[in-house]
Design a protein that fits this description.
The protein is α/β, with parallel strands linked by helices. It contains 42 helices and 12 strands. The chain has a 7-stranded parallel β-sheet, sandwiched between helices. It has a 5-stranded parallel β-sheet with strand order 10-9-8-11-12. It starts with 21 loop residues before the first helix and ends in a 5-residue tail after the last helix. InterPro entries: OGT/SEC/SPY_C, TMTC_O-mannosyl-trnsfr, TPR-like_helical_dom_sf, TPR_rpt. This is protein O-GlcNAc transferase.
Length: 918
């Protein structure tokens, strides 16, 4: 609403330049008196008589124009006043009143000219300045309008109308403190004006002066109890003051007087929602929308109420309607993002969050929400960027630091992650989540003891079943001693026994636990009993979605599943199965979890009959896989990835099996078979598996022969001393069991020219953890322990070829490393143990018929390694034999025949049994 034009002023009884004849003077005075008394008809008749007697009388013409204005006859008023000005052009009030009439006609530019002419003739005319301000405001010239009002007030400090007008323009200019002062002065001058108090209340609300605002609104209502705008404003302020019962009464007062007041229904809904009366709030918002369908804020609050009532689909519709009406509604973007995330539509949720961040880059909520979502979807770089920004925007938020810590951990920036978790603990030492996050980072970094202490701190704060299960699964990545291995294993067993005995159930272990007991396999024990105990913790996941039996005679549908169908050990072991399984008998479906865009993934896509990306949500993944109607679900690995581990508890195909990707039993009842090889398994190996053990004659992989293109580089390219006797152990550092240290130490002691090389850890800090152990166990040769930077592909083959001898760790030896080392003819010393995971290199040697470097005890291991490293003839002869025989390891079609025969037999058995259960 525009500022007000003050009523058109009438002159007093003293008239300038009146006609000298006494009769004209008396007639004019009588007309003016009637006019001032409100008798417009009599005044008009007298003005016209005066004009008959004295045509062109300027004051009579002017006041006849004023009279026409008062009757709403604006065009007539313009003619009369214009004629008066023509007769007597230097009367400032004539121009001022002409401006008023022109303004009433909406001819603001002409009105402004008239007001400026009046001011030029009569600079002290406060009304003209006020009305000039009003006309300027109508044309959007707020700064000029404010200046005009300011001048009116300077001329007449008690000019309440000008003060109110000035306040309204200052509000529009966002100069709220000045507006508050202007309204306050006006209220002091005219304390009986409800509108002024109401406007003062509005400004004070915007300034955050809520108590003062409520007083102003209350005063307005005292003056005019019918001022429902003031009652509405009071309700809003009382809501902000958390005086909810009073706010409710205020809105109900408005609605009793004006039941169609949409904003009041909205305000009442907001109060009811704050009181937790969600169903009533919903009804109020719906009434507001019925009255004003385009009321964006009402749609938004309705969405919020629906979401709070656990109705996400309806909430989503209301958020969408909010955004249709107001695409830039920031809070609706944030709200719908959260709903979409909960519904599992993570891609769309991220896009909405991004739009919110674009609208308000400095919004903590949007940055935090986007960062946490991207962390879940694996878009780690962008997640870290947004979570860093969230922590900057609100450095006191422990949640932001915890989220940042988790993302940095996923990005392998463990030192920074530890720093983020420590900051969260500093801010909120009572939050178990911060201590737990720090524990996981420290353990992953190789600092198990410190990490264990942090986990215990978390457990002291939170004794929930969830955290107890998580803590029970903690194992060191690099064990400091064989004693620690035994202690940790015993602790895991005690904890699991206690949890199983108590009947603890984890409903969604993928989200709530999120990791597996991966490192258990590296401790060198029979894991069957312990794996079965651990599996009992997750018995709630034993869900059967077994598909209907497919007709006999149709091709067997086999689904191969893993997160690691990429440039990875698992990808190398499995691509041959996918590519060459007999398509006359089998359909091949590849089920890839979060596949990257790399060449190996492209091979899986190319060779699959169907290539399916498995969703990250376990329930959705189950439904998707069951819908594929598979005969066989073949897990390339179970235990390396949380999603596939927990999926394996469900019955999703009549036949479910696993192979040596993670070479240890699963303990999971719904995994039927473990596919291995006669040469991999020792006698009595059935006792190592909860699954039925399947022993192929062939090694269980169709492994492609490497085809390097580049020539070999010299040692210097890999930071290896040219003249060193290189004992290379090119394995992941967590395979280096403390029991192996005695062998390594004896090599260093007996060969003073030996240099022991490992591949850098991932993360590098694992090398530091291993070196801390080595400083105790290999103290006499610690200066000859080296690390080579991590390399892949042909460069890794190159490194293998540069070694004098390769050392296979005990308890858990090489896998693809052995296949690639044998390709370059590199001799590997190996000591096969009691379990398959230490027997891969042995099985390769046996298949080649070359057993010279297979040993049976530590002394023989040391002697063989030193001989191969120092005796070039011995080394050369063994290398030659390996190169001559290694062809049997690669692209072995026999394994495809065995795999096909196994699938047919297993499927037939499942059909005969007539049940999916094993």
């Amino acid at each position: 609403m525009a500022p007000k034009v003050r009523s058109m002023p009438l002159p007093g009884r003293k008239v300038s330049e009146v006609a000298p004849r006494q009769r004209s003077v008396r007639l004019f005075e009588e007309a003016l008196a009637r006019h001032q008394a409100g008798d417009l008809a009599a005044a008009e008749a007298l003005y016209r008589r005066l004009l008959e007697e004295e045509p062109g009388h300027p004051d009579a013409l002017h006041l006849l124009g004023v009279l026409a204005y008062q009757r709403g006859e604006h065009e007539t008023a313009v003619r009369h006043i214009a004629e008066a000005i023509r007769r007597k052009g230097k009367a400032g009030i004539f121009h001022s009143n002409l401006g008023n009439v022109l303004a009433a006609l909406g001819r603001y530019s002409e009105a402004i000219k008239a007001y400026r002419c009046a001011i030029r003739l009569s600079p002290g005319m406060a009304d003209a300045h006020n009305n000039l301000g009003t006309a300027l405001h109508h044309l959007g010239k707020r700064e000029e309008a404010a200046a005009a009002f300011r001048e009116a007030i300077r001329l007449q400090p008690s000019y309440a109308v000008a003060l109110v007008n000035q306040g309204r323009v200052l509000v529009e200019l966002s100069r709220l403190e000045e507006a508050e002062e202007s309204f306050s002065l006006a209220a002091g001058l005219r304390p009986d004006q409800a509108e002024t108090h109401r406007r003062l209340g509005m400004v004070r609300k915007e300034l955050g002066c809520l108590e003062a605002s409520s007083e102003s609104f209350s005063r307005a209502l005292e003056i005019d109890p019918r001022d429902m705008t003031a009652a509405f404003g009071l309700g809003v302020v009382l809501h902000d003051l958390k005086r909810l019962d009073e706010a409710e009464r205020s809105f109900l007062r408005v609605l009793a007087a004006q039941p169609d007041y949409a904003e009041a229904h909205f305000g009442l809904g907001a109060v009811l929602m704050s009181q937790g009366r969600l169903a009533e709030a919903e009804e109020s918002f719906r009434r507001a929308i019925a009255l004003r369908p385009g009321y964006a804020d009402a749609h938004f609050f309705l969405a919020t109420a629906l979401r709070s009532q656990g109705r996400p689909e309806e909430a989503r519709e209301s958020y969408e309607e909010t955004l249709r009406l107001r695409p830039g509604h920031f809070d609706a973007l944030v709200g719908i993002s959260a709903v979409l995330k909960k519904e599992g539509d993570l891609k769309e949720a991220a896009e909405r969050y991004r739009k919110a961040v674009q609208l308000r880059p400095e919004s903590f909520d949007a940055r935090l929400g986007l960062g946490l979502l991207l962390k879940e979807t694996g878009q780690i770089e962008e997640a870290v960027e947004n979570l860093r920004e969230a922590a900057r925007l609100n450095p006191e938020s422990a949640s932001a630091h915890i989220g940042l810590g988790i993302a940095l951990k996923q990005d392998e920036k463990l030192d920074e992650a530890a720093g983020a978790f420590r900051e969260a603990i500093h801010l909120r030492p009572d939050l178990a989540e911060g201590h737990w996050g720090l524990a996981t980072v420290l353990i992953k970094r190789g600092d198990f003891e410190e990490g264990w202490d942090a986990a215990q701190a978390a457990l002291r704060l939170d004794r929930s079943d969830l955290l107890r299960v998580r803590t029970s699964a903690l194992l060191p990545v690099i064990c400091s001693s064989s004693e620690q291995v035994a202690e940790c294993r015993a602790r895991v067993e005690r904890s699991v026994d206690e949890l199983v005995r108590e009947g603890v159930v984890i409903r969604d272990p993928l989200k709530e636990i999120g990791f597996t007991n991966f490192y258990l396999a590296y401790q060198g024990f029979n894991d069957r009993e312990l794996q079965q105990k651990i599996a009992r913790l997750y018995r709630s996941q034993e869900i059967s979605l077994c598909p209907k039996s497919r007709p006999e005679g149709s091709r067997i549908r086999v689904g191969f599943i893993s997160r690691n169908f990429k440039q990875h050990t698992i990808g190398k072991f499995m691509i041959g199965y996918v590519a060459f399984l007999d398509r006359r008998r089998f359909e091949v479906v590849t089920l890839a979890v979060d596949p990257p865009d790399d060449p190996m993934v492209q091979q899986f896509r190319q060779h699959s009959d169907e290539f399916v990306i498995v969703p990250a949500d376990i329930a959705a993944a189950r439904e998707q896989i069951a819908a594929l109607n598979l005969d066989v679900l073949f897990y390339a690995d179970i235990g390396m990835d949380a999603l596939t581990y927990f999926l394996a508890f469900s019955r999703l195909a009549p036949v479910q099996c696993v192979t040596w990707g993670h070479p240890v039993t699963t303990g999971i009842p719904n995994v039927d078979y473990f596919v291995s090889s006669k040469d991999l398994e020792p006698e009595g190996a059935e006792d190592h598996y909860s699954e039925d053990l399947v022993r192929f004659d062939s090694l269980p992989t169709y492994y492609f022969r490497p085809r390097p293109k580049a020539a070999l580089m010299r040692r210097a390219a890999f930071l290896i001393a040219e003249r060193a006797r290189v004992y290379l152990c090119p394995q992941s550092l967590f395979k280096i069991h403390p029991d192996f240290d005695g062998i390594l130490g004896e090599i260093l002691r007996r060969d003073p020219y030996s240099q022991l090389y490992f591949i850098e850890g991932q993360p590098k800090s694992l090398g530091d953890a291993l070196m801390r152990r080595f400083r105790r166990t290999l103290a006499h040769g610690i200066d000859r322990v080296k690390f080579i930077p991590r390399v892949n592909g042909e460069a890794f083959l190159n490194v293998l070829a540069l070694a004098n001898v390769i050392l296979d760790p005990i308890h858990f030896g090489g896998g693809t490393t052995s296949y690639e080392a044998f390709f370059v003819g590199a001799p590997i010393v190996t000591m096969p143990g009691a379990f398959m995971r230490s027997r891969v290199t042995y099985a390769c040697y046996k298949k080649m018929g070359v057993m010279d470097a297979v040993v049976s005890n530590p002394d023989e291991y040391v002697e063989t390694a030193i001989r191969l490293a120092n005796d070039s003839a011995c080394h050369g002869e063994l290398k030659s034999r390996i190169l001559s025989a290694n062809h049997v390891l690669y692209e072995d079609a026999a394994v495809l025949r065995e795999l096909g025969a196994f699938f047919e037999k297993a499927v037939e058995k499942a059909r005969t049994q007539g049940t999916c259960a094993h």
